[in-house]
Amino acid sequence: MQSMGALRMVVAYGLGAVSVAAIAWLTVIARPVEIHPPPDPVSPRALPSLSPFPDRTVTTDVTVARAARDTLTGVPSARIDDRQYQARVTITHTIRMAEDDALAAWIRQGNDFPTGIRTLVDDGLGRISVGGSWLAPTVRLPPTLTTRDGRTTARFRVIVLRQLSAGTELDLDFQTPKAQPVALRRTVTLRPTEWTVLRTTGLQPERETPDRLRFTTGEQVRLWLVHRSHGFADEQPMDPFAWGTALAIGTTVVLVFFLLRSLGTAWWAQLPNRELAIGLLLVAPALLVPMLTQSVESIGYVIMFGALPVLALRHASRMVPVPAPWTTRDVLAVTALGVLVALGMLIWSGRQGQLPYPELVAGAMVVALSAATAAIVFSADLGVRNVVVRLAAVSAGAALGCLALALWARALAHGVYPPDSVRLVLGLFWSLIPIGAIAVVTRTWSRPVVAVALLVGLLMQGWPAEWLDDGSWSVDPASQANPRVGDRELTELLRGVFGLLLLGFVLLVVRLRRLGQGLPAVHNRAAVSITIVLLMVLYLSPRGTGNLPDLNVSVPLLSITSLVAWVTAWWLLGPPDPDLVEPATIDEHRDLVRSALHKRLLLISEQELYRVGRGKIGAGELSMTDFEQQRGDLETALDRHGRHPETAFATAAACSPWHNGLQGFVVCLLLSLPLGLVYGAPAGTDLASYLFDARYLLTLPAFGFLFGYFYPRLRGTQPMTKVLHLMAAAVLTELSAYLPAFVEPDVALLEKVQLVAIVVGQAALVYIGLGLFWEWRIMRLAGEPWGRVRNVRSLRSLATPLVAVIIAVGTAAASAAATHTVDRLLRGEQVTSAQK
């Protein structure tokens, strides 16, 4: 028996060695993948070849001149700053070719205008980027064709409008054509008019005068121009106090203070939490430095996708009190997913010629069968068929994964690999962070959380369209340009940072839910701090930036808006009412509401007695004895109910703060959805930036969540009075983002009034509807009809909803009558330097 067991082990180890050897052999013989040029964004059948033709010539004329008033007709007046220079850059590309040239015929068809023309000019001739502050969208005029004496001339004009302050350099970047080989070398003539060429790079001039600069380029050339009226002082004056920097620092300090306060003393009392805080404090600088410089960017990748996942899983293993409920089925499911990914990678290896298909298929079969047979031999003595089959399946899947991983590493060594695979690996590693973090917050391991975290981790690195782009599988990864957010390239590292910010927001919401299961959360300092942090984050950049003439004015207001959200939230959460009695059950809530309704009836009856009694006593229809008796009965009844103000409509109605907050958030979100249709759908290059851009849809509902969560603490004694205080706070916060529109002299008074009307109308439409819903909800929970407090047959009772309707109609009218200036101010259209 011992000899048979030893023989079985030898066979098993031998089969395992065969599998490992097959993987090593296939990896060694794998060939480098050929680098293919990036696919043309226009169909090859639509755009003719741009290879050099001896009879084609290209010239580019660039004229930089002051933008006259008639050329700024479509630019909103609020965007034009008379203190700055408005530059009009006119770029004219001229292609001269034979009459029967295929390019001339393609231009005449104009099937892909303007996309095809833009591709021809930017990719075939080289894109010209113009710096400076964005003033208006770039305009491309239709091409003009002239044919004479067997020659065809095509002209393409591009008009760019920029705004520059005194001393600001106007940057002209003549980029290298993307089409390979370079289509044509072009002769560029620059006419700077009122500007002077300050410095250049990559340029050898053929003619150089103050009014004209001519050069030939096929590579990248950059020029910097300044206005001729500007001079450089020998000594630079001291910069004035920077309000933007001060407010940004102040906002950061307030956010950090409330963030630390939201954790609570109980959180800091635990040793693993303190170790986690120290670990994050140590890795934060090493993660932020690569965001500022690319020289040490690799360190940031190691920390983001290596150190942080390990730190998160280690902390979760120490904090979660229950073991992970993973079963054999979970292992099989993970193996199946791994096999799918491995098959995709192996198919790529075959398609790109890393290994011929016959060798790849034969080698994969040897690797999988050897591993599976080795597992069967190892577990044969167990005698349980299901266990043996599962071990064989897992072993075969693991072997195929190792083969795909080895070939992927070989592709990395050769320098050409599918870019999607890098995002896949980084996304999988990053997903370990939310898995561990949510396990700590929920105090348990959950399969749905793992699945959602994996999906979010993959989406953080790009939308599904990027993953399914088959054309990206055969190009040099270095030629794949990442999208940009602002002035930064959206690399995988920056995507991970955005994901961490989104994760932190979600974790705060989850903690707020856990704290809000009981009524004491209304007065919990941690819950208040979390809510303030969430509000401040949502208002850090309301409606976007870069749409006002003086950018130095609008940037500080981003911090002002966030700080105003903090102040208004602090004002709303007034001191606790000592007379407020919170019902513990629905029955107690019902008794309080019925008692309050009875007290209201007595007060109305007393007022009616005084109003009617005066006439009846004078007419002799009511004696003073009867009047005093009725008044005494009412006074006695009122004394039994207490003389203090009623508080039944100011309680949480025996519901948890989280439940009330969720109700307020959902109602406000539904009421504000029409506003989202006005401003348009959010946009973003990935999941994090998309959600970041969608924050304007959550600002008003966030105040609705504050209303429901801390309803007993809000100022007021009933839903409508509390809603009016809430609306005042929200309107003040929203208007603080548009202060430049009020101080800007170019914005007319009527436009400023329209701006206030729109903001007030939006808040009134959402929050008055919330107040009416809350009235109905309190009465419904008490089992009483809403008509007891809101009589639809009484005009006085309908005053509040009628005012809401009138304000909503007025808002719609103001929005329709508002000019393009106010529309730009409200939408806050973001324009990045790359999009300019």
TrEMBL record:
Keyword GTP-binding among UniProt keywords: no
Keywords linked to the UniProt accession: Membrane, Transmembrane, Transmembrane helix
Residue ranges crossing the lipid bilayer per the database entry: 241-264, 276-293, 299-317, 329-348, 360-380, 387-409, 421-441, 448-465, 493-510, 522-541, 553-573, 664-682, 694-711, 723-743, 755-774, 795-818
Keyword Protein transport: no
Source organism, top-level taxon: Bacteria
Name of the protein described by the UniProt record: Integral membrane protein
Organism: Nonomuraea longicatena
Lineage: Bacteria, Bacillati, Actinomycetota, Actinomycetes, Streptosporangiales
